[in-house]
Amino acid sequence: MDATLDRTDYAILRLLQKNARISNKEIAAAVELAPSTCHERVKRLHESGVILGAHIEVDPAAVGVGLEALYMIELSKHERGTVDRFLEEVVGIPEVRNVFLVSGRYDLVVHVAVRDTRHLKDLALDNFTSRPSVTRIETSIIFEARVRHDLPLPFSDSDTEAR
What is the pLDDT of residues 20-41, one digit of tens each? Predict the structure, then answer.
């Protein structure tokens, strides 16, 4: 990734993190650029890999997801190939929202979204505990969550330095 970001780039990223559907014209006005210049900057941010994509947030209940949980998983082997293969396979399971390779007691934390407790149990048995590389799995149900999608970026709105 060959991207040197300046204060204006960070301002554009901040706006897009809050609302990926904001128009180029609105971004340009907010960062005090001509719309054509702003469009080129956003294009450069995409092409350089700084902006990886744009996503929508869906109400889980509206699509039949009644339960989210975390599987804490311990692997039998910590070889790079085993771990990489496990991560790639698991991220392909439709119910899996996130997979984290972590330090501590467990090796991985897998965030899943399912219909109900039966679905949660079946998912664990069919897709996780049946794998020879899994030696232990512990499940925690998520009762409530608060999610923040934006990253902390330098040059916040409260900075007093001029652009």
Answer: 999 999 999 999 999 999 999 9
pLDDT tens, position by position, 126-146: 999 999 999 999 999 999 999
Burial code of 36-52, b = ≥16 C-beta within 10 A, e = fewer? eebeebbeebeeeeebe
Phi/psi for 40 (5° steps) reads -65, -40
Q: How does pLDDT run across 30-85, given as a tens digit for each residue?
A: 999 999 999 999 999 999 999 999 988 899 999 999 999 999 999 998 899 989 99
The pair of structure tokens assigned to 67 is 């339960």
Strand, helix or coil for residue 74 = strand
Residue 113, CA distances (Å) to 38, 129, 131, 132 in order = 38, 17, 20, 23
CB 112 within 8 A of CB 79: no
